[in-house]
Structures are given as C-alpha cells and as structure tokens.
Here is the input.
Amino acid sequence: MGYLVLARKYRPQRFEEVVKQEHITKALANAVTSGRLAHAILLAGPRGTGKTTIARVLAKCVNCESGPTATPCNICRSCREITTGHAADVFEIDGASNNKVENVRELRENANYMPAHSPYKIYIIDEVHMLSDSAFNALLKILEEPPAHVKFFFATTDPNKIPITILSRCQRHDCRRVDVDSIIKHMALLCEKEHIDISTEALTMIAREADGSIRDALSLLDLIITSTNGNIGTELVVDVLGGLDRQSLFDISQAVFDRNTGKIIEIIGCLYDRGQNMVKLFSELLEHFRNLLVVKLGGSADGLSDVSEFELNAMRNQVEEIPGTYLHQILDILFKEEVNIRYSSQPKLAVEMAFIRVIQIRPALSIDTLIEKIDALQKGLYESFSGGDTPHLMDEAAIQHESGPERTAENKPPASVALNARNYPAPLSEKKTRPHEVKENQPPEAFQALPEIHSPKADKEDDSLDVSWENILAAIASDNPALSACFADSQLKKIGDGRLEIVFRTNQFNINYANRDSNRSLIQIACSQYFGNDIQVAFSGQLAKSRSGMAQKKEEKLLENETLNHPLVEDAMKIFNGKIVEIKIL
Ligand SMILES: [Zn+2]
Here is the structure.
C-alpha cells in the first residue's frame, strides 16, 4: 500500500472520532437510533471542519448491516465499501463539477431504482451551493417527494447561496471552526501514533496557520514531516511555512513597550526577507495586541482567539507592568493604520510607519494617577505660600482651645468679613509655647476641650462642632488641599455617640471625590485624631442648587448691611482709622 496522507489515513470512521463537532454528531446519532433521521441533511461550515467526514459516517450508520446504528461496525461489506469510497449505494458527487441540470436529472432517474444491497441509496453532494439555478429546481422536485429509500446529505461552505426553497426542505447542521487547542491535541495524538517527535510550539504554529481547519493542519503536518527525518522544531516549521513565528510577535510588542524603534525595523525587515506577507503580519500583530489587552484586563484563555496556555503565560508576563490605557492607545493607532496598510503599494514601509507612530505616543496616565499628581502639586503650592510653616492640626487645635469656647453667638464675627477663626488674634507667646505643651501632655489638651461635644446643650454643641470642623479641615488642607476644598460649604453634626455626620452641599464632582474610599478614610482618621477616640463619619452630600439671581442678590444685600452695622466692624474702623473698600461674600 502506497503512502497515505495523514488526513486520509486518520479520517474518522466513527462519530466519536470527529474533532470538535459533538453538537452535530450527538444530534445525528440520536436521530439514527430513534429512527427519525431526516431525508435531507445539510452540513454547513468552513472548509476542513469535517462536513464530508460526518456525511460518510452517517451513511455508514444508516447502511451498516448491523444498523441503523450510531456506532457502525466498520467491518461489514457496506461499511468497508464506504470507507474505501466504492460503495454501490452511496454516491459522492462534487457539486462544483456536476452543477448542471442534466446531472441532477440523471441523479433523479437513478434514485428511482432500489438500492443494490443496502437499506438506503445515499447521495452525498459536496459544495452543493455550486449547483446552477435550474439544477436546484430539478433537485427541489425530488426533495419535495423523495422515494422512501433515498437520503440526501449535502455539504457546503456557503449556505447563503442555496435557495431558500431547498434550505427549508433540509435539516441544517453547522460545523464550527476547530480551535487551536483541539487541533494541537489531535495532531499530537497522530504524531504519537506515527512515532514522530515534534515540539508543542511547532504544533501550535501549524495549528494557527491552519486557521480552524483540521484538514489544512494535517496537510501542513504532512508537508513538514516529509521535509525532515529527525526532530521537528520551530525553526523548521518557520522555514516550511515561509513566515511568521509567534516569537516575532512577542519580540515586536516588547520592542514597542521598550520604545525601541531600531529593533522593530530590524524584526520587520527580517520577516520581510523570509517572505512574510506584510498585510498578514499586520493583522496578526493587531490580534496580538488585542490579546495582550484582554490579558491585561484579566481575560482568560476562553476570551482570546486561538491562544494556547503556553502563550497566555508569556502574554501575562509581558503586560504585567504595562498600563491598560497605553494598550488601548496602541490598538487605536493600529486600527486606524490598518486601512492604509491594506491598500498601500509599499506595505512594508506602511507597517514600519505605523509602528513608528505607535512608539511616538506617550503613555496616557489613568485618572487616579492624574488626581494624585494634582493633589501633590496643590500641596506643594500650599506649602510654598505658607512659607513651609503649615499650621498643624495639634497646634491649631490648641490655639482654638484658648479662643474658641469664648466665642459664642453674640461675638462671633459675621461670615461676610474675612476674619475667620484662624485669623483671630491670639497672644504671640501662646502661639509659641502651646505646641510644646500639647506635645508633652498625653492626651493632648486640645482633646480635653471636647466635652462640649457630649454637652446636652444643643446650640452650644453645634458651635463647638463648627469650630472643630474648621480646625479639622485646616489640618486636612495642609496635606490635601483639594479634599479640604470639597467641604468648603459643609457642616459637622453629631448623630450619636462617637458618630458624626458631615452635611455638605456642592457639585457632583466634589461629592464623588469626597466619596472615594481613600478620602473617606482620611476624614475619618482626621476626626478620630482630633477628638481622640474612634469616630464614625457619615457623609450626606447634596447637589448645590443654583439659586435664582434675584434671591441671591437679596441675600447678599442683607449680608452687606448686617456686616456694615456689626459692632466689631465699627470698632475695627475706629481703631485702625480705616474705611470699608469692599465687602466680599465668602
Ligand atoms: Zn457495518
């Protein structure tokens, strides 16, 4: 017996040997065993996925001497004839070369005769979509009223070209593309049977090149086996396939991440010399970067197109330090460049230019990183304005302790004058000595000033809380001015033992910003430090409603009058012999 190519030698003879089409083989096996097999079956799907093979196995199932059965014996005369392709009652017709109406008429006449020695006459028409319109019409006649001893098994790669009248009379089954892993496993099994030593990487390359077709994969494997006598490694496969090894894709993506233009030009040039099609290379690279992004976003092998476990790990390593936003940027550019490359008369130059553009982009920062940077910048500015001598929570609290409790509702300065608690004059000596005292005393004196919080008098408590809140905000401002600014129009309220609520009215951005986990915990820590015990802080942020212009003006006028008549302002004008230049509403 002469040499048989792998695809023929190992053609599946039973349903369970068919790779990756269980959804079809199970349905057909059930139909056969329950005696409900349709008289016309259409098998659609990409080439090399097993359509004709399934049709042949099905023919055996129907005509096996021990049948009908889902597991044909492969020993009886009928089974053996079908295996060798010489069965008297099974006709394999190539639709592409027998597409005329006369061919179908012949078929119809022949179909009327009873089968020679099997239960059924079976017509397997491959590439049935190639039939002419009149041939389809002739076929329709027999499909409408088929003789009881006839079965039709059609196979097609293009079911859309089959007239709807034919389709509606067939039971349709769609074959799936075979995934890379299944092709690898199948080839590895055959290599083992053939005692061929081949690396998994080499099998992966062949499987990818086969593009979902088992037959193509086996043909390539045949070609590679005949080109060598010894072990089959990746280099040989690259040579035979004339092109692209997967390592080159990883090398290019690494050069992009390293921003190494020279390396990319070198790899592309090398692949070009090996005869690699540049358009195909670019589409492989596009898919590679897409896969890297999916891996970065935590995707599993299922979400990736044709990636083996071996490659998945390599991808994980490569993108570990690369931000997802940067991968997005790269993909954006590559997608835009794809059209140029496809229609370019110089595809090699076009691919090189595309990657030079990719390398020129600066990786974008994530929003979180940007906000952190702005915060750091604001902090720097704040410190430089206050001469680096930023008042600290404890110092400030100690000063407030002196002046705070005395300031009751009557002598508290109105909000409209730019004299807030922190500007309130305190004796110079106090300022200098207090901080030391606070640091020495444990617990700090400032915290002992807190009994007011637990005082039953509600109004006094509110005042004290206002002052405390100002102090806390001032302390936060020294480290995080942006956060402090969020609470510009806010109030601290006590809602239970050790529980405070911050009520603030502001815009959506500020509410979102304040609600970040890190910022919430900052506030919580600042409050707990200030009050000296564990404080739970709840937020109730509301969107500030924009007031109507009239109402706002009226309110401002009222405040201005109140300010002008305030005794403190009058005193200040007398003492400093000043005059009022401007009143600012803060
Ligand atoms: Zn049999």
In short: The chain is about 55% helix and 10% strand. The radius of gyration is 41 Å. Confidence is low (pLDDT under 50) at residues 388-458. Residues 458-479 form the longest helix (22 residues).
